[in-house]
Amino acid sequence: MKIIDRYLLREMAGPFVFGVLAFVVLFVSANILFELMDLINQLGIGLWTAGVLFLLRLPGFMVYTFPLATLVAILISFGRLSGDSELIAMHAGGIGFRRLVRPLVAAGLLISFATATLNEFIVPACNRKGEDIIRAHAGGSAGTGQQHVFYRDRTGDAVSRLVYAERLDLGTGEMTRPIITWFEGGVPAMITVAEKGRWRGANWEMLDGVHYVLDAEHPASVVFPRMTSKFSTSPAQIARQSRRPEEMTYRELRGYIGDLLRKDLTVTQLELTLHHKLSIPFSCLVFALVAAPLGMRSHRGSSSIGMGIAVLIGFGYYVIWNYLAIVAQQGHLSPIWAAWLPNIVTGAVGLALVFSVRR
């Protein structure tokens, strides 16, 4: 790496950390603290637990601060270089503006990959752990089990099967006190009640239960010690439906969407969330393209000016982002376009600004 690249990256590092901390304090902490206050009032959690939940919630919000912090870092660093005439000195030494942009764009790409990694491996795990803690204080239990699981299976728009279990243990593949209601033509036809259900790789085996036939003319019930059910949805699939998208990785959410699509269900909101898992991290890259020429034009090294410009650009970006999400939910735009169009437009503007600057 050349000296000029190291110099520019060092200039960017300090403002980037400053930007992350500033946006965490200004925007993120307030949202988390309001949520924690509600949990303290509703569930009576202690201060130590609230602190743990704060730390677990933080990575999910930090994903949204990294693009703005990238903006701040480049605006401040390039603004200082421009204001102190260092850019003029570099130009006199034969270093063109586009050459200076390369390490900043590379840094934006690196931050994008780091943010995507955080969003894929750290954020879902933290969100799941946080939900386990909340469920435990609400009367459930943490770990590999989920309390009071509901699963609704559909054929087209009609419900074909409704499953409830007091507990689903993903580690052992067991359900505690499952109740399966079987539907025919949208009307309950049979009910299976058991003490325990075990996943056998292809079907559920019900233990110590009763099978009721809900026939108005010929009702019947059969007591069984062991019965192989035609219910073939795996524990992982049941657990995915009971999780929020924020608790799933990209791969898990994509698999869940595939399950729903095979049942002809609407998944627009889930597809938006899926594509946002990548489009938001890679907004760091497009913001880096925009920030460099704007920072050079500012001729000021003030961090407050850099913060102000970053907030304005970020606000405009997220307004467009939310508007396109609403348009997609209404069925007028594909979710993938709604998620990536803000990046495409912002990146195009950034490239135009870069190429409009004289060498």
Question: Features of this protein?
Answer:
2 domains; alpha+beta; lipopolysaccharide transport protein A fold; 7-stranded antiparallel beta sheet; elongated; 62% helix; 359 residues
Structure description:
The chain folds into two domains: 3-138 and 272-356, no CATH class; 158-232, lipopolysaccharide transport protein A fold. It has 359 residues and is an alpha+beta fold. The longest helix is centred in the first third of the chain and has 41 residues, at 3-43. Strands 1, 2, 3, 4, 5, 6 and 7 form a seven-stranded antiparallel beta sheet that branches. 62% of the residues lie in helices and 18% in strands. α1 (3-43) runs antiparallel to α2 and α1 (3-43) packs parallel to α4.
Residue ranges: pLDDT <50 for 5 or more in a row? none
Beta-strand portion reads 15-25%
Mean pLDDT: 84
Q: What kind of oligomer do you see?
A: single chain
> So how many helices?
10
Radius of gyration: 27 Å
Order of helices and strands: HHHHEEEEEEEHHHHHH
Largest sheet: 7 strands, antiparallel
Fraction of residues in H or I helices:
55-70%
Q: How would you concisely characterize the structure shown here?
A:
With 359 residues, the chain is α+β, with helices and mostly antiparallel strands. The chain has helices spanning 3-43, 47-83, 86-92, 97-137, 235-242, 250-262, 268-279, 283-298, 303-329, 335-356, and strands at residues 145-155, 158-169, 174-176, 179-184, 187-199, 204-213, 220-228.
